[in-house]
Amino acid sequence: DGGITQSPKYLFRKEGQNVTLSCEQNLNHDAMYWYRQDPGQGLRLIYYSQIVNDFQKGDIAEGYSVSREKKESFPLTVTSAQKNPTAFYLCASGQGYYEQYFGPGTRLTVT
Amino acid sequence: AQSVAQPEDQVNVAEGNPLTVKCTYSVSGNPYLFWYVQYPNRGLQFLLKYITGDNLVKGSYGFEAEFNKSQTSFHLKKPSALVSDSALYFCAVRDNLGDYKLSFGAGTTVTVRA
């Protein structure tokens, strides 16, 4: 069963703690992406990776970090430096210029 | 540079009536255009795309979209809306010159009333 998995679905953290969101794909896609979605807003790109061991900052990378050690995995760490981390986080993967496929999302709440 | 505009925050239609969700774009090169749908607390589902060829593109769940180069538009349409089509719809674009990043519109909430 091919697709993108994100875990956990819901995540709660205290302010000041780092937290890592998981994203795994078995679609054999080269590129992977992390987006943030806030109520009433569209998707904003945090980081993306077009190939293993390489990644680039998106539009809102401050306070986030990523790694791409394996083709299948692209974890996102939300650090304590991120001023407003509570949001819905979406991971996607794609091949070349074609469509991206999205995971089910992780809702992070920081209090 | 690339960008997308969805001029309507909300679209309301009666079940059985035609549904149109508007999208205009701006790119430097040739556009690759996409429509996605999102149900509450879920990821985005791919509906359809325009890469090249026929200006009328057919996609999933009876949706279609028309590419209009002169008006730089890519409106999503469904001839007869269902209550289950109520969701958030996103238009996205990339050009053929840069990397693989997509630019998304702000989204349009569609409500289909019974």
Beta-strand content of chain A: over 45%
Q: How can the largest sheet of chain A be summarized?
A: 7 strands, mixed
Give the termini separation of chain A. Answer: 36 Å
Poorly predicted parts of chain B: none
Helix count of chain B equals: 0
- How big is the Rg of chain A? 13 Å
Average pLDDT number of chain A = 93
**What is the percent of helical residues of chain B?**
under 10%
Percent helix of chain A, as a range, is under 10%
Q: Mean pLDDT of chain B, nearest integer?
A: 94
As a percent range, the share of strand residues of chain B is over 45%
- Please provide the ordered H/E string of secondary-structure elements of chain A: EEEEEEEEEEE
Based on CA atoms alone, the radius of gyration of chain B comes out at: 14 Å
Order of helices and strands of chain B: EEEEEEEEEEEE
Structure summary, number of beta strands of chain B: 12
User: What oligomeric state best describes the polypeptide chains here?
Assistant: heterodimer
pLDDT below 50 for ≥5 consecutive residues: which ranges of chain A? none
Number of helices of chain A: 0
| E-strand count of chain A | 11
Backbone structural class of chain A: mainly beta
Q: How far apart are the first and last residues' alpha carbons of chain B, in Å?
A: 41 Å
